[in-house]
Amino acid sequence: MTHRFSVVQTAPPDSILGLTEAFNADPNPDKMNLSVGVYKDESGKTPVLKSVKEAEKRLIDSETSKGYLSIDGMVEYREDVRRMVFGDAIAGERVAVLQAPGGTGALRVAADFMRTQLPDLRIWIPTPTWANHPAIFSAAELPTSTYRYLGADRTSLDLPGMLEDLRENAATGDAVLLHGCCHNPTGIDPSEDDWKQIAKVIADKQLLPLIDFAYQGFGDGLEQDAVGLRTVLEQVDEAIVCTSFSKNFGLYSERVGAISLVAADAGECEAARSQLKRIVRTNYSNPPRHGGAIVATILADESLTALWKEELEAMRTRITALRESFVQTMESTGKGYDFSFLLRQKGMFSFSGLTPMQVDELKSRHSIYIVGSGRINVAGMSESRMQTLCDAVASVMS
Which residue among 72, 247, 308, 346 is the active-site one? Predict the structure, then answer.
């Protein structure tokens, strides 16, 4: 008997999630996982926020149905997304917001929309970018090209190169992928003045910005982290924003995200909304309720909102403190390693500058797991094990 599946080849492991599988299988009791982008407390656990636990209690007491949501999701959640992302910058009738299963789900819907509705469009993505970005666009059969982002020193933004690539190489009307804040994997963000220059090139070339906004609140604060996005929207009439609440609400496993499409007017917005809903219908049909209901419950209550903001600020400041501690501890090793450039980086990740060979040595000799590019999840560090980490990093660099 012929087995059809005998021709199926084993897929290569995911470059990031595959590391977690290797980490889980590692018998070393002192192992460290600094690869996957999740926040951890000092004990190494990814905590459930107090505001989330309280919201869930209220939902259990009040929930009366497990019926399907509409294709575009909960009305109150969608309004929360619009307010948090755009503030008063864009009139509500110009924004179509659809609840999505995480930021990844939102990105796939955006990619399918661009491929089906804007068939001649190519999307320009930064070098480097999150490893799943090109995979998502490839799966949607959306053509891609790259623009420069990380400088030759691997510690700074190559703004001239970025602007030149978009100005000289991108075709008028193409799309451009931007990280709204806390660039993944580098942690290197444009300044406010940089964003103005980027916005001008985007407007001059009539590029469509696709903004991945997965870390709002983890850089400089909720409002401050939206400056780049809103600066771009001052110059253009159209954009797509993909939001995730995995990080800032700690709802990683609940898959809480949204896609927001900004159109020039209400009529174009509704036409685009109808096409986005069609794409959703043939993909996952409608979004999950629980995570979105948690967010909506928190943001509908002043006391829960205040508690959530306190918890978000505590996570943000702890990440900053860990980054500073890493820099100071590396300096204290006495081997002359200057990692002060990490202090200019923002969010969960830092681009360490470690080579693939050094990364492999960290894993094989010390059971410390980081991504091959040298990206370190700062939010996975702990103060109590900082010296151990830095000693290991110093050893593979010597």
Answer: 247
Ordered structural domains, the chain, with CATH: 9-47+313-397 (3.90.1150.10), 69-300 (3.40.640.10)
Banded model confidence at residue 19, pLDDT cuts 50, 70, 90:
confident
Cβ count near 246 (within 10 Å): 23
Determine the distance from the C-alpha atom of residue 216 to the mean position of all C-alpha atoms in its chain, rounded to a whole number: 9
Whether 130 sits among the annotated catalytic residues: the reply is: yes
Scanning the structure block, which residue is given the tokens 């209550």? 301
- Considering the candidates 72, 124, 130, 174, report the single residue annotated as catalytic: 130
200 in catalytic set: no
**Average pLDDT, rounded, for the chain:** 93
* Structure tokens belonging to residue 204: 């001059």
pLDDT at 322: 94
Question: Which band of pLDDT confidence, cut at 50, 70 and 90, is reported for residue 336?
Answer: confident
| Residue 26 contacts residue 368 (beta carbons within 8 Å) | no
In the set 72, 112, 174, 212, the catalytic residue is 212
- Asked if residue 256 lies in contact with residue 249, where contact means CB atoms within 8 angstroms, the answer is yes
pTM over 0.70: yes
What pLDDT digit, counting tens, does each position of 230-260 carry?
Answer: 999 999 999 999 999 999 999 999 999 999 9
Listed as own residue / partner, the contacts of 84-89 with beta carbons closer than 8 Å and 24 or more positions apart are 84/216, 84/222, 84/243, 84/299, 85/213, 85/216, 85/226, 85/229, 85/241, 85/243, 85/260, 86/226, 86/230, 86/233, 86/260, 86/262, 87/223, 87/226, 87/230, 89/230, 89/233, 89/234
- Respond yes or no: is residue 212 known to be catalytic: yes
Check: CB of residue 283 under 8 Å from CB of residue 65. Answer: no
pLDDT tens-digit profile of 356-365?
999 999 999 9
Give pLDDT, residue 194.
98
pLDDT-based confidence at residue 302 (cuts at 50, 70, 90):
very high
CA–CA distance, 52 with 48 (Å, rounded to integer): 7
